[in-house]
Amino acid sequence: MTGPDDALSNGRTLKPLLSVLKGACPVVPPMWLMRQAGRYLPEYRALRAEKGGFLEMVYDSAAAAEVTVQPLRRFGFDGAILFSDILIVPYAMGQDLWFEAGEGPRLAPILAETDLSALKPDFSRYEAVYETVRQVKAALDPQVTFLGFAGSPWTIATYMVAGQGSKDQGAARRMAYSQPEKFGAIIDAIIDATVVYLSGQIEAGVEAVQLFDSWAGSLAPLEFERWVIRPNRRIVERLKAIHPDIPVIGFPKGAGAKLADYAAGTGVDAVGVDETVDPHWANRVLPQGLPVQGNLDPLALIAGGKAVEEAVDNIRAAFAGRPHIFNLGHGILPDTPIDHVEALLSYVRAAGD
């Protein structure tokens, strides 16, 4: 983890969000929202209707760049998150990827039924994403921090093994227990592909990256250590060897009581905290000075008003004195009223008035 002195670079103050990732504690926390580019925005829905399906949007670099900057124009967030999808990695590893209307992503062949050697990697499938990064970078306000991302190995493996999402990630959990060598080989391949992917994003222009482990909460403690902490640590170590100054945010959704072990064991520069975690507890158990991100409940944002204000006050109080990026505890939901997002921004930023 970097220290607060690193918030200055060549005598110049860093961008607000990037400075927090480097250890700064501003009066008003910088802010972005997970899934801030997406379906709750009418401008996104209009562009998607014009361009077609979700994957078509991701692979149209100009459209993906436009989607990435749409929420910046409307809300003036401190961070821009690349518009893409975590399943670009298995797609580049050789699985077919498509999206079923109303049902979500599909991957084939399913690794529960075939071997990893059946896949033929094609990392040229990353190139359109890198072009999106370059276009966004050229369009961003100089004070906005540009975030890239990838899914963490455990979460990606759950999709690769089952061919789709599931409620309990049962297929991957069964394989991890009964065929640990086969499952470990899948994890190793995902790590390699993810390091290539994130390194390419960094070279194209992102200034920090986030590792999304959306299904981390489905694992028993020993399995969490094996399939969440260790693989993420390997990614962090390899990225730091190539890009030592790029902060890495780890987001192990559902980690709960294992959050402190995750922070200590992975070596991430900041930890995302989901909405189920008591922020006061998180502040007590996480390493002193470690930047945190989160953790407003997306449903509170839909409710708006007093529900949001009470939650914001609680989160701000919990993380007072700690580097903090204000965010949701998970992605913004499609039925979120835009005026509630505007009110949230105003309320968070009013602390500096």
Automatic annotation (TrEMBL):
A biological process from GO: protoporphyrinogen IX biosynthetic process from glutamate
Residue span, Uroporphyrinogen decarboxylase (URO-D) domain: 30-39, 147-163
A single GO molecular function term of this UniProt record: uroporphyrinogen decarboxylase activity
Pathway linked to the protein: Porphyrin-containing compound metabolism; protoporphyrin-IX biosynthesis; coproporphyrinogen-III from 5-aminolevulinate: step 4/4
Reactions that this protein is recorded to catalyse: uroporphyrinogen III + 4 H(+) = coproporphyrinogen III + 4 CO2
EC number(s) per entry: 4.1.1.37
Xref: InterPro entries: UROD/MetE-like_sf, Uroporphyrinogen_deCO2ase_HemE, Uroporphyrinogen_deCOase
Subcellular location(s) per record: Cytoplasm
Transition state stabilizer (site feature) positions: D85
NCBIfam families per record: hemE
Family label: Belongs to the uroporphyrinogen decarboxylase family.
Protein's recorded name: Uroporphyrinogen decarboxylase
The organism of origin for this protein: Sphingobium chlorophenolicum
